[in-house]
Design goal:
about 160 residues, single chain
Length: about 160
């Protein structure tokens, strides 16, 4: 990995902890700093991928919220908390950098997402950021696999 890719990976992990442990008040400055750094590293046309994937992830998590697969303490809105929306933005900025080797292989990215996404949500639930139903983990695995496969496939076709 190159130095910018390592910084991207470490920066995302710091954003993950800031969002999950610190909530929206900590997530906003952390993700803002990460995305400002990322602005200098971004590739041509990358921001539309970041935007579309972020919106897609926010909508996906909001659907899960509304059907009861995930819940958040003291949340009364039909959309996910700001910290989770910001986490989608930070994650989306990894696909063409620290996760580039996976993004170039859509099927492998889908498999990695099916395994790692439920683990990430489980870790968030253990830290008290959210609660997940038993069936939620299966839905998360399948949904993430599909979303990542679609994102990587679309990116591959657009950039050829």
């Amino acid at each position: 990995m190159t130095r910018p890719q390592v910084i991207n990976a470490v920066g995302f992990q710091l954003c993950w902890f800031a969002c999950v442990v610190g909530g929206s008040a900590v997530a906003l400055p952390a993700v803002s700093i990460f995305l400002l750094w990322h602005l200098r590293q971004s590739q041509k046309n990358e921001w539309w991928l970041i935007g579309l994937l972020s919106v897609g992830g926010i909508l996906l998590d909001s659907v899960w919220l509304n059907i009861g697969l995930i819940t958040f303490a003291d949340l009364t809105l039909p959309v996910i908390p700001l910290w989770l929306a910001l986490l989608w933005c930070a994650f989306s900025a990894t696909l063409l950098h620290s996760l580039r080797w996976l993004t170039a292989r859509p099927a492998l990215l889908a498999l990695a997402a099916a395994v790692s996404a439920p683990i990430s949500y489980f870790a968030g639930s253990r830290l008290g950021a959210l609660e997940i139903s038993e069936s939620g983990y299966v839905v998360i695995a399948i949904s993430w696999a599909l979303l990542m496969f679609i994102a990587a496939t679309v990116w591959k076709k657009v950039t050829l």
